[in-house]
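pipeline stage [seq->struct] | target=HD-GYP domain-containing protein | organism=Paenibacillus gansuensis | residues=360
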Amino acid sequence: MRKVHISSVQAGERLAKPIFMENGNVLLGTGVELNDRFIQRLGNLGIDMIYIEDKHTMDLIPDEVVRDETRKKAVEAVHKTMTGLMDMKNVKGRAAVPEIGSTFRTVFGSILQDLATRKDVLVNLSSLHTMEGYLFHHSVNVAVLAGIIGIAKGYNQSQLSDLGVGALLFDIGMTSVPKEIWNKNGPLTEAERKRVQLHTEDGFNLLRSQFDVSLLSAHCALQHHERFDGHGYPRGLQQKEIHEYAQIVAIADVYDALTSPRTHRVRYTPSEAIEFLFASGNQYFDVDLVRLFCRHISIYPVASTVLLNTGQTAVVSSVNPNSVQRPTVRVIKEADGSEPAEPYEIDLHEEYSYTISKTL
């Protein structure tokens, strides 16, 4: 399979990976033949990239860090909890959400089980979902990323559990923000921006009132918009004043937000997002945490379509963990637009005259 932009998809091509709705259910499944109506609908739903079946890349399968079933159950849990809160007239006054802590410890435990089977984790979050499902899928992505960093930090089971629950629920305060604000297509007014910023305190107050959610998990909601240099909110904390769990969640939050399509901008590539994170080291985030995070990110994931400096189009076929910027690629189109008689591979780690110009 290979990953392509929706604008280059042709009628008759088939999906190679499913596309999910906001609640985690499948919208279009693997093997569905795409027609013009489907393609237009996907674009209208905010889906800009999809995986298609391709005779030259049938053996290339993106290596997901968690199984589809694990992700589906996690998204379902987040969706059920958050939409339930949205339906309440007064989220702030809600004293307790039954068994929210135990529910999300179980959910994150399944994520950890999947992560534990991975020896060398290079993250490629290849799950595809509609724009309306961003809030729910984003929470799961942040939890996966945070879990990987927690494991790399050597956290024990209790620490990982507190971090994971906090990561899954870090944005729960957004349920008190009017949907037309956080889903707005365009810049926020000053009043709207201030209302959105209250979600950190709303989330903290909701989580700390739960008998089975730790205060450390609740602080992920409160502090994930604090910044290392003290210019964040709500309290303007800096450096070690910000709990490490919240710093990890903040990095994961920004990375996944940058690499996801949004109503007001196009998505960043993984390499562009990593460049942003490094540039913000010791300004927005602790640079040591940024370095640790970025060591586990696949800059050019398997099945990505890329343009080489030679003008050739290629698909990433494998990634060298020791040289993530220089993957092995499979050439599927020459610079003159012709297809090679047989696709062939170039190891960019060995062939330094070749570079990746951009991701297509």
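stage status: PASS
auto-comment: The radius of gyration is 21 Å. The chain has a mean pLDDT of 89.
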